[in-house]
Amino acid sequence: MRRTRALSAQAVSVLRALAGEPSRWRYGYDLAAEVHLKSGSLYPILVRLADRGLLEATWEPGPPGRPPRHLYRLTGPGREYVAALPAAARTVRRAPRPTLRPSEASSCR
Amino acid sequence: MPLMFIVVVGIAVALIRRRLLAAPGDPRWSRDTPARLLGWAVGLLAAQREQWGQAMIGELDRLDGRARRWRFALGCVAAAVAMPPWGPAAAVLAVLMALAASAGGLVLYTQVHYRLGTDGWTVAAAVILVLLLVGNLVAGSVLLRRPGVAGPGLIGGLLVAAAWLAASGFTFNQWLNSVRSNGWLLLPILAPIVVGVGGTLWGGSAAVGRRAARLATVTAALGIYLYGVLAVAVTGATGHDPSDSWTPAQVVGDNLGNQAVFYLMALPLMTAGIGWAAAAATDRVRGVRPVPAPAYPGLSTSDPGPVSTAEPGAAQAVPAAATGQRRTWYVLLLCAGLATTAFLVLLAFASSRS
User: What are the structural domains of chain A?
Assistant: First the structure.
């Protein structure tokens, strides 16, 4: 039987960020900025959450000649998962060191 | 040694040629380094993870600022390089790691057993050795995950290793003293040619042939290095003539250093260089052209976004004058390379006669 591992504190913080506005599609970079994660940590977390069915993704078409952009939001089970989290687990125990400057967080093209 | 000169100069000429003759719209050169690096790393992902690689590329495309792009791209590269599933590549990588660890352990054993010196040079040599072993493992882990490369690369590695063993003799004594005739030395040259040609024919493109040659290089280098270190550890200074003023520890230390220089530096350079040239030559002769990868290859047609495969600037006509100028530079470079090679070969012959 496959054992389901508990989510890490960072993964929970990503879920919480998405749960802030559950119906809104979010960009990966914005999520990284909001939860203070590096891209190298964020994408493996997003992959795990999507594999568990807690996250859904879609593509936003890019301008001609540019790649499309991936967008994420919680699925129904994802919202239920966040709602079922104990109150203590809903807050990240220790905020990771910010990796993005505040000025960078909102300056995506 | 002359062959080494030719290989080094050949690699330099080929690298610069690729850059000089690239069309202005070529996506390999028109994108900045973080984008190219990420594009390379995304190619390592398993098929079921490709869309995540495209997600990283799409996100990087919207970022401004050099430092920010670099930070984002490096993080994504680390994630892509380590992201599971690895499939059978994990098992092969474990074998390569076992080879490297065994070789490192044997070097340490030899160092202690024969009481070799532990001065600053020893520490520097140990650091270089660790870097070489780790570098080979990283290269191997990357190449193993490239589609179509593992099969010809691993078979090629066995072939190259067998060629070096045959050329040096199969006993430890022959290995350390190179007693075979010069005719056998053709084998280590022929083996990478076979790997480069075979990889290109197998995979249908020169890129697969080149990667197969590099993977063969990595596997053969680690295997042969372990064999060489084992030879040194077992034979020690046996058969050494005491009248040559070398102490047994010096003989062992010298042999140990030679194994690293020959089989972790010279062998990889030569094998990869010759295999690369053989793959390119096969590509030319067969007229096989690599299928141009779409700019955003991981997206299926069912994805909601309209995916353009056009790269900005790709359709621009290349000005004839600019092309001619680049070709002139290339010809000049080639002539300089050939002249340098000829000079170095003559120099090597002259010094060997004196």
Answer: 9-89 (1.10.10.10)
pTM (2 d.p.): 0.69
The pLDDT of residue A87 is 67
For residues A81 and B168, give the distance between their C-alpha atoms in angstroms, rounded to a whole number. 64
The closest of A38, A25, A36, A70 to B61, measured between CA atoms, is: A70
Question: In this complex, do A44 and B83 lie within 8 Å of one another by their Cβ atoms?
Answer: yes
* 8 A C-beta contact, residue A29 and residue A108: yes
Which of A54-68, B293-307, B334-348 is most confident? A54-68
Task: Give the span between the Cα atoms of B334 and B19, in whole angstroms.
Answer: 13
A59 touches chain B (CB under 8 A): yes
A2 touches chain B (CB under 8 A): no
Interface probe with B: pick from A43, A71, A100, A108, most Cβ of B within 10 Å: A43
A38 close contact with B: CB closer than 8 A: yes
Interface membership of A66 toward B (CB under 8 Å): yes
> Beta strand A26-27 with A69-74: parallel, antiparallel or unpaired?
antiparallel
What is the ipTM score, two decimals? 0.80
Domain boundaries defined on chain B = 106-291
Please give the single-letter amino acid code of residue B344: L
pLDDT in tens, B243-278: 777 888 888 888 999 999 989 998 898 899 899 989
C-alpha of A29 from chain center: 9
* CB-based contacts of B115, cutoff 8 Å, min separation 6: B249
Give the model confidence (pLDDT) of B208-217 as tens digits.
999 999 999 9
B45 phi and psi angles, rounded to 5 deg: -70, 150
